[in-house]
Amino acid sequence: MNAPAASLTPAETLRAALAGLLDGLPPRQAAQAVERLIATYRGATPTGAPILRDRADVAAYAAYRMPATFEAVRSALEAFARAVPGWAPGDHVDVGGGTGAAAWAVSATWDGGRPVTVLDWAEPALALGRELAAAHPALKDARWQRARITAELTLASTDLVTVSYVLNELTAPDRAALVDAAAGAARAVVIVEPGTPDGYARVIEARDRLVSAGFRIAAPCPHSAACPIAPGTDWCHFSARVSRSSLHRQVKGGSLAYEDEKFSYVAATRLPATPAAARVVRKPQIRKGQVLLDLCETDPSLRRTTVTKRHGDLYRAARDTDWGDAWPPAG
Ligand SMILES: C[S@@+](CC[C@H](N)C(=O)[O-])C[C@H]1O[C@@H](n2cnc3c(N)ncnc32)[C@H](O)[C@@H]1O
């Protein structure tokens, strides 16, 4: 029997709610819905109408993608929260929120409830998001509102705007309008995209607009100056570990218990923020007696540093440091 919802973490509550989603749906049918969705996402976006058209689409999206987008947003928010300690959003608007992954991630990052509004143009996604959120005390009063992102978009003033895995589905003018609307409405804006060269390029475009609007970058960058990566040579991205459900194993084959979701992000704010001194931007390489860390630093520059046994405590800390962490570790 499941423990009562109150004793579960938001991540566990979400997992339990998603597990029930495909109950009653024959496994083959669930796998087919996911395969159709993957094929649609491989096609041309943006589309003139919502990709998530009906209950089967959104159930497939939620079961297959939401655990990964939730973990990616949660990682971005945790990095943001470390740069702005002591602050928690008093309210939150999630634009293109779909089934609500970012709303769940916000509740996993900051304790307590807050007014939450999820905006999306796909009614079936909002309906399922509302259904899933009923299982979570912090989200059961969230507002799920139909809204189309266009160049005319305006947002009511709020503490936090999240935009996760949405920019990819918009035209360039709509992307710009959305970022400007978020900058005009919020004290903090967190944008997450797939960790691909294109996803990174959209994040950089948004980052530039946020900085022009007077925001400071809280994470992942240690500074608000231009990104030191020469366009087209590399892309800044991170990785979040996601437990695989039985649906994942069915669609992707194999028996791995987890997979790694690659994502790019920017978290910017008008609040006083203390970004990391440097950030680990690749998977650390652990060698005998040494750890190689690729760092983005405040100069701004990208630099590899080698931490050896001779560095004592710092070496032990380097061995525990992950891709995406701040360096050196706090304390
Ligand atoms: C890949 S899903 C991401 C959903 C959610 N943010 C997440 O991270 O799981 C993209 C979402 O953006 C929404 N979307 C795309 N274009 C939109 C538009 N022009 N107006 C409103 N919503 C849009 C879709 O309906 C969908 O829910």
Please provide a written account of the structure:
By secondary structure, the protein is of the alpha/beta class. The protein folds into 2 domains: 5-269, Vaccinia Virus protein VP39 (Rossmann fold); 278-327, no CATH class. It is built from 10 helices and 13 strands. Strands 1, 2, 3, 4, 5, 6, 7 and 8 form an 8-stranded mixed sheet that branches. Strands 9, 10, 11, 12 and 13 form a 5-stranded antiparallel sheet that branches. The longest helix is centred in the first third of the chain and has 18 residues, at 66-83. The chain binds S-adenosylmethionine. S-adenosylmethionine binds next to helix 4 and helix 5.
CATH fold field value of the largest domain:
Rossmann fold
The count of domains is 2
Overall 3D geometry? Answer: globular
CATH evolutionary superfamily of the largest domain: Vaccinia Virus protein VP39
Strand count, sense and barrel status of the largest sheet are: 8 strands, mixed
Number of helices: 10
Q: CATH class of the largest domain, please?
A: Alpha Beta
- Assembly context of the chains: single chain
Order of helices and strands: HHHHEHEHEEHEHEEHEEEEEHE
**Which CATH-level-2 architecture of the largest domain?**
3-Layer(aba) Sandwich
**Radius of gyration of CA atoms, rounded to a whole number:** 20 Å
Strand content: 15-25%
Average pLDDT value?
Answer: 92
Keywords:
single chain, alpha/beta, Rossmann fold, 2 domains, five-stranded antiparallel β-sheet, 10 helices, globular, binds S-adenosylmethionine
Topology overview:
Blueprint: H1 10-21, H2 27-42, H3 55-64, H4 66-83, E1 92-95, H5 101-109, E2 116-120, H6 123-133, E3 143-146, E4 158-164, H7 172-185, E5 186-194, H8 197-212, E6 216-219, E7 238-243, H9 246-252, E8 258-269, E9 278-280, E10 285-287, E11 290-297, E12 301-308, H10 313-319, E13 326-327
The protein binds S-adenosylmethionine.
